[in-house]
Each structure stands twice: as C-alpha cells, then as structure tokens.
Amino acid sequence: MKNNNKLFIAILIALVLGIVLGGIVHYQFPDVKADFAKNIKLLGTVFIRLVQMIIAPLVFSTLVVGIAKMGDMKMVGRVGAKAMTWFFTASLISLSIGLILVNWLQPGKGTSIKMENLSSADDLLKNTGTFSLENFVIHIVPKSIFEAMATNEILQIVIFAILFGIALSSLGSIGNPIIKTLDVASHVILKMVTYIMWVAPLGVFGAVAAAVSNYGFEIFSLYARYLLDFTIGILVLWVLLLTVGYLILGKRLWVLLKRIKSPLLIAFSTTSSEAVFPKLVEELERFGCKSKIVSFTLPLGYSFNLDGSMMYMTFASVFIAQVYGIEMSLGEQITMLLVLMLTSKGVAGVPRASLIVVVATCAMFGIPPEGIALILPIDHFCDMARSMTNVLGNALATTAVDKWESESESVLETN
C-alpha cells in the first residue's frame, strides 16, 4: 500500500510538472513547441509500449489459467453469462446517456466552430472502411494467434485463450504441467508490471507536457460548451456506476476506489485504459477478488465493456450532426445506438479508437465524417475522461461478478 501511495504521488507531481513545462514552452518558446511536443511525447510512448509489450502474454496466461482452475465448464458459462449481462447492459445505458444528453443540451446548435483543423482528420478518414459487419466478424476470430498477439488484438486473444483454456481443462491431470507453467508465467509478468509502473510518472509527464505545449492553457477553455456538456455526461455516468457499485459492494466500494486510484490517474493522464490493464489485475486481486474471476472477466471487459467510450460515441456523432444542421429522427438515433453497440465491440481501450468508430458511424448515417476535425483539437481531454471511466466500469464489473459468483458458490455449498 505504501508503494502504491508513492506511485500515486509521483504521478500527480508528474502531471503538474507536465502542465507547467508545457505552458512555459507554449508561451515562451512558441517557435519550438511543435518539435518539443513531438519529442517529449516519446516519454509517454515508451511507457505505453512497455505496457503493450506484456498485454498479450498476460491476457493469454491469466485467462487460460482462470478457466482451467475453474475446472467446471458450467462455472465458466455461469461467470461468462453474468459478465456479458453486465457488459451489454452497461453499454446500452452508457450509449443512451450520451444520446439523451446531447439531444437535451444540444452543444452543436448555433456553434461558430471553424473547420481549421480539417486536414488533421485525414488519417482517421482513411480508416473509415475498416468498420463493416463483414470486417467486424472477421476481426473477432483470429487467423493466427501469433498475429493477434503481435498486434495486441485483445478480443482475438480472448477467443483463442477461452478455447485453449476449455480444452486444457478437459484434459484433467494431464494438463496440470501446462497450467502450472502458465500460472508461473502470469506471476512473472505481474512482477514486471511493478517495475514498468514506475515508468508511469515519466509517461504522464511526457503526454501532458506535449498536449499543453501544443495548445496552451487555452485548450482548457476551448470549445467550452462541448467540454462542459461532455463532462456533465461523464459525471452522470460516474454517479450511476458508483450508485450501482455501492448497491452491490456497500462500503467496500470506497476501499475499491482507494485501490484503483493509481490506475484511474494513469488512464486519465495517458488517455489509455489499456495501459493500466496489468496494474488493474494486480489491484483487483489485492482488493480480494478471486484471481480466476479477474483473469476471466477483466480481459472480456476490455473488449466488451468500455463505458466511457460508449457514452462518447453517441454524444460525438450527434454533436457533429448538430453542427452541420442535420436533423436526425428518433428512429435514426436509436438505429445509430444499436449500430454502435455492435461496431464498438472489440475496440481495445487505446487512444482515439473511439474516433475511428465515430467517423465510420457518421459516414453510415449521412453525417459528413470530416466533421470529426471539429473535435480533434480537444479530443485528447475527452479521451482522458473516457479512458478513466472505462477503467472504473471494468473494475466495478469484475468486483460485481466476483461477489455474485461467491454468493452462488455459497448457495451451492449449502445445498
């Protein structure tokens, strides 16, 4: 716990220093701010790459071991059903909150935002074609587990690991050596996590300094209406998540929040919920969740349970339509919500993945996808909030499933 507090303090200090240094460069040395931002951002890139390096082996080893240790395939199905029920319910509610608030607050109506940054959306527009029903289905099933691991395709790794874990479990005692080997491997990787997390303050420092040096302090007030309305949406979602969490966990909710404060802050600062996956595994197990539940539920959550991103997708899509003066009927908006329920699954918690889904959705519903350029300058700060929300949602989902499963096991033992 002491080391956890030290890391949290170090990240906070790095966050403040990043804002200060970025501000100094932006206002005192404007001629070098672009080069400075590009170079200082490498600190954040190094940290995220270090984490990405261990994501695939950690997801594979923990998920296989979790399934194999369950032994009973009925238990695997029971836990999976509980997890997926939470995921799809949370996604539907998150998408609905975004849709309701953007229609009520109407941040895009009467705006004077200029299309100055249109060219910066080119890369995203090139990726629009990657989201179709055919490509989505193909994306789910791995062509090669090695390719999936090399590209950190979490959903594909999860699919392979589930099948591998079920097959391994069916072998009985013959599979024990492999289970023990993967169990040891997962603990080695978690030990690596403790080393890598001490690079997090440098990553936070670099990411924040780069953003502030590019845009200055004005970025915190730029597009104030959009940011304010989006913040309201995130707060509503947090209140709802924490309320449900309190109903399930009671006062232990505050213990959980204390446990995951570092992962939340890292996700907020680096705009990557994926970056905190290993640390989140560690903290949830320390909180008291069974390792087999964490190793099964959390990887699934990173593919199916991105609450902050869900809310953002409907909010951003309808916002762009409002800016262009495009009126969408209730039926069209509900259809959009259902489409986003599908196309968003399997999008890992990596920076700006949500934007690509928004671009594809806009194109599908006749909204100019170029409108994504309207929100690119401030998306970094929206991404901070939605990444942190994704982490909270997955932590609550895992602890809820763990509690429900413990209660089910108690009932079965009693009977």
Overview of the molecule:
This protein is an all-alpha fold and 415 residues long. Helices cover 78% and strands 0% of the residues. It is globular and about 65 Å long. The two termini are 39 Å apart. The protein has 18 helices and no strands.
The CATH first-level class comes to Mainly Alpha
Total count of helical runs of at least 4 residues: 18
Largest sheet: none
| CATH fold type | Proton glutamate symport protein
Structural class: mainly alpha
Strand proportion: under 5%
Identify the CATH homologous superfamily. Sodium:dicarboxylate symporter
Tell me the total number of β-strands. 0
- Give the uncertain stretches in residue-range form: 113-120
Count of folded domains: 1
Helix amount, in percent?
A: over 70%
Summary of the model, kept short:
With about 425 residues, the protein is mainly alpha-helical. It has helices at about 1-30, 35-70, 75-105, 120-125, 135-140, 145-150, 155-170, 175-195, 200-215, 225-250, 250-260, 260-270, 275-285, 290-305, 305-325, 330-345, 355-365, 375-415. The chain has a single domain, classed as Sodium:dicarboxylate symporter (Proton glutamate symport protein, Orthogonal Bundle), CATH 1.10.3860.10.
Which features characterize this protein?
78% helix; 18 helices; Proton glutamate symport protein; single chain; mainly alpha
Q: What is this structure's SSE topology?
A:
Layout (H helix, E strand, L loop, with lengths): L1 H27 L4 H38 L2 H33 L16 H5 L6 H8 L4 H6 L3 H17 L5 H21 L3 H16 L8 H26 L2 H8 L1 H10 L6 H11 L3 H14 L2 H17 L6 H14 L9 H12 L11 H39 L1
